[in-house]
Amino acid sequence: MRTFIATELPKGIRTEIFSLRHNIPHNSARIKWVKEENIHLTLLFLGEIFEQQLEEVEMACKLVSQRHKKFQMSIKASGVFPNFRRPRVIWVGICQESREHLVSLASDLMRALVSLNLDDRKDFSPHITFGRVKSVYDLHALQRGVESISIETEKYTVKEIILFKSTLKPSGAIYTPLSRFQLQQ
C-alpha cells in the first residue's frame, strides 16, 4: 500500500489555502489542484510498503510521537518547486519558528524507519503543496500569480502525526488515515 506520514491542518486553514488557486491566472498553466480535504503537510512519504511492514511503521510513529511535544504553527509565504524556470509544485510555507519542530519530527521519523531504506529521500523542506503544474503556457503570468499570494494564517496547535494510506484514482488521490499518534503535552 502507498503510505505517508503527515500532519493535518484545521478546516478553515485548508479552505484558505484552497482559495489561493484563484490568484493563478487560468491561462498561465495547466495545474492539478489538491482537493481541499486532501491539503496536509507531509512529514515523510513512505511510498509502497507491504502489509506486514505496517506494524513496524506504526511502532516507529508511536515512539517518535512520544519524544515530541505539541507545537504552534502558522502558514506564511508561497513559492514553487524546483524554481520558476521549471515550476512543478505550487506551495505555501511554514512560519520560521515552526520549521525547527517539523524538521526535527521528520528527521526523527526518518531515523526510526531506517529499515525501510528511505535514504534516497531529499532533505525535508516543510511546505504544503496545493497545486501541481502539468504544463506552462505563460511563465510570467504564473510567476506573477504565485508572487501575488499573500497568506499569513493564525497559529494553530499541531497535536498529532497521522499515518495515511493513499489510493490513486482517476478522479484524484483518496487519503485514508490508518493510525493517529498524539504528540506530548
Write the layout of secondary structure elements.
Layout: E1 2-8, H1 11-19, E2 29-33, E3 40-48, H2 54-67, E4 71-73, E5 75-81, E6 89-94, H3 96-112, E7 127-136, H4 139-147, E8 156-158, E9 160-169, E10 172-182
Antiparallel strand pairs: 1-3, 1-9, 2-7, 4-8, 5-6, 6-7, 9-10
Helix pairs in contact: 2-3
Describe this structure in words.
By secondary structure, this protein is an alpha+beta fold. It has one domain: Cyclic Phosphodiesterase, Chain: A. 26% of the residues lie in helices and 38% in strands. The protein has a four-stranded antiparallel beta sheet. A four-stranded antiparallel beta sheet has the order 2-7-6-5. Strand 5 and strand 6 form a beta hairpin. The longest helix has 17 residues.
State the end-to-end distance. Answer: 32 Å
- What integer is the average pLDDT? 94
In terms of quaternary structure, the protein is: single chain
The tally of domains stands at: 1
The CATH topology? Cyclic Phosphodiesterase, Chain: A
**The biggest beta sheet, please?**
4 strands, antiparallel
Order of helices and strands: EHEEHEEEHEHEEE
Amount of helix: 25-40%
Helical segment tally? 4
Q: What would you give as the CATH superfamily?
A: Cyclic phosphodiesterase
Rg, Å, rounded: 17 Å
User: What percentage of amino acids are in beta strands?
Assistant: 35-45%
| Poorly predicted parts | none
CATH class: Alpha Beta
What CATH architecture would you give?
Answer: Alpha-Beta Complex
- The strand count comes to 10
Strand order of the largest sheet: 3-1-9-10
Q: Give the overall form.
A: globular
Global structural class: alpha+beta
